[in-house]
Amino acid sequence: MVYEKVQEKPAPITSRGIIRWLRENLFSSPLNSAMTLLGFYLLYLIIPPFIKWAVLDAHFVGNSRADCTGDGACWLFIKAKWDMYMYGFYPLDLHWRPNTVYILFGVVILSFKFIKNNIAKIAIFIIYMIVTYYLIHGGAFGLKVVDTNKWGGLMLTILVAGVGIIASFPIGIVLAFGRQSNLPIIKSVSVTYIEFIRGVPLITILFMSSVILPLFFPEGVTFNKLLRALIGISFFQAAYIAEIIRGGLQSISKGQYEAADAIGLSYWQKMLLVILPQALKVAIPNLVGSFIALFQDTTLVLIIGLFDLLAMVQLTSTDTHWLGFEKEGYVFVTIIFWVFCFAMSKYSKSLEDRFNTDLR
Amino acid sequence: MLSLLRNQKVRGILFQLLTVIGLVAFLWYIGVNTIHNIEQRGIRTGFDFLDTTAGFAINESPIPYTETSTYWTVFEVGVLNTLIVSFWAIILSTVLGLIIGVARLSKNWLIAKLASAYIDTFRNIPILLQILFWYNVVLATLPPPRKSMEFLDKIFLNNRGFIVPRPIFGESGWYIIIGIIVAIIVVYFINRWLNKRQEETGEEFFFLPWGILILIVLPYIFYLFAPNHIVWDVPKLHGFNFKGGKVFSPEFLALAFALTIYTATFIAEAIRSGIEAVKKGQKEAAASIGLTPYQSLKLVILPQAIRIAIPPTINQYLNVIKNSSLATAIGYPEVVTVFAGTALNQVGQAIEMISMTMAVYLVISLVVSAILNVINHKMKIKER
Amino acid sequence: MEDKNIIEIKNLNKWYGDFHVLKDINMEVKKGEIVVVCGPSGSGKSTLIRCINYLEQFQEGSIVVDGIEVCDDVKKIKAIREDVAMVFQHFNLFPHLTILDNLTLAPIWVKKTPKKEAIKIAMKYLERVGIADQASKYPNQLSGGQQQRVAIARSLCKNPTIMLFDEPTSALDPEMVAEVLDVMIELAQEGRTMICVTHEMGFAKKVADRVVFMESGQIVEENPPKEFFENPESDRLKLFLSQILSH
User: Fold this and answer.
1) pTM of the model
2) Nearest-5° angle of CA B347, CA B348, CA B350?
3) N or C: which end of chain C has fewer CB within 10 A?
């Protein structure tokens, strides 16, 4: 038997459009409806008071503390202390130097879109790092030296996170290779290092590098506070990077190792030309995640006396002219951290999605 | 000779030899310098300091501590406080994480989005910032003791902490403990008997609520037989502060809340990925053979979801313990704050003291990892 | 073969959002009939049979299974699912339970059968499909063909009146397809009511009473196998047959 063709019909009104959506998603059962109402109530408790404090009643215009009269947020405090939050104690007239670093970073990233050669990219990045050092620290090309204890605020946070990830990377790669190795001593040294670092809190590593590290070297060798923190963070992060790269290495099928051996590559050639590039590609989303964690971990340096972005809140709110505005300070810093971290996690997610479709 | 160098095995041994020599040389270098520097600065070595008097006060301690206690006691107090705050944070964050994780998967769009927003918000704010926020912003707005917020005239909240009546058990404590043990045994045997009965006759019995009831009522019955009952140490306002009761200090509260809220986001994600990892077909197959939603959850979905969710969750518990070290920023007296902080400042023997502190965390990590491995091995889904 | 309709589908319409996935389906299945449903992917054939045991819900029309109407009533759904068994494309065995436990799960928890009896029933059907020796193994330790046979045994354990097969051999390696089809052919010859969504035309030719061709959500043509394969009437069926029978 053959049947006549049936025309398509639009769905019944209760099963399409916004009414259907409301029914299925919010009010599909008495329990569900109750939960929806509870959800709206929670939103009502949280959002309006916050908007009232942060926007409606807030003070955006004025010059001094006296202009902050009411209950709302006193954003003038942030305006007044903006330089501290962004640059710490860095001399005001030299702010162009870190600003140049930021701009150059954008330029470098942009140039990466056009340059294909990997070696060129690495070279450009190394040059960028050297330029950054001289710009921030000074001491050459006629640039005045700015001592590290004047570095602070968001600039310091970004610096610590950046140096941390860059320095921890090669150490992490070596450790990851070491852990995969067949040579028992190499493997046990790597495993011990990794498991030791991962078992202790970062703060103890920072204490160690602050207090114990100077003891390891003869009297003449000094480490300033910032350097000690950077060393601690780099060696800490290296262990976590190592595990992420190891995950990437393990996802490479044995056939790749065998093919590389079969065409006669040495161990280092095989690892650097064939295995590592593939492993890194797989590991990129996790590496970004690790960088987000590192970015958040930089806040710990305030415990050992460095003035990062978070430290600025306590510092600025004890100024006698601006006492008692910690709330604004904390909210401001929270927003900055949240924006950075959220943006990075969205980027990581898009990388993951792009990578998943690549694989197919 | 050269051909020997090309031999893979020989190269391997040579490479390792070089590494060992390098390491030893490095350690030697460090060792020599350290010994020299320590002598120069007059820092003592060894662990004798642990028997000397510490001489400073600690705000909260689960064991008796006075200013005449030794540094070893300081260490003990620190470790105990670490464990206490971690314990609370682990339990609370698991409960909260479970709720948020399940809410994230809810069919109710609003609830799922709220859970998602919670996770996205608190995951992207550094934990130290959250701790400081709770301590300096939220808890700082609490009223002074004379104007405390109160509940039922027995529970108080003010800027010195959260104060509740403290039960003094006396002998009744033992009765309760024995009651609990008996209740556990009773529940275990009833459960066994019910299972057997189901095997023989097929009849099912929903024992869970009854089991919980027994676990609560039986110890209470035992308690009623005790010679003396619980005496409550009720907090009372004396002058400017409260005396008596159990005080949860603002430092403890800030640390516990921040750790709970932060860790719950990760546990929620672990639970969510556990449940999502169970393939849709499993739910369909369970439904098509006639299991009720509760039965499919209990027999098919949860057993599989838990296998996936447990390792990351236990990892988060380790993170709670490690993150408790951030108490240093607000002065909660856990081991890093009192031992690697205050005590270290006085004694100066950084190597010994920081090593001891690290050892605490390492031991905890190793123990928890070992337990996790055992759990994983027992629950492994067997493959070809 | 009695002349009673065990499944009656009338004017069935289903939408996924705005997409009209099942259009005015009318179908009757008599007790003991073997119906094969085929068609290009996306034609709605899997969706159709999933509506029968309420794994999918529909907006318009009605389905009556053995006198019970398929609707939101929990009791009725339970009764229908005791009568109707389903075998899935991806087997969907429970990986954390042994083969034996996979089979005894429903008898013990749904039918409240004592364990010893449940095991007896389970072993009977495991022997029926030829897997009795694997009873204490876990699903991931078996091959695809063995897993699917276990899935069939699992659905036989409640002695269902109707069996639904959703592309049961599509996920199997070619050399294992035969062992599963053999079991299905034996079941068909025992007089069970079966609705099979499949591409295995040899199976259809051998045991089907009727072959139904679906495309774009509606039934285009249905006939006994002889007419279906030798004299396709509609152009769409002719095109489809030329595509799948060419190798």
Assistant:
1) 0.83
2) 120
3) C
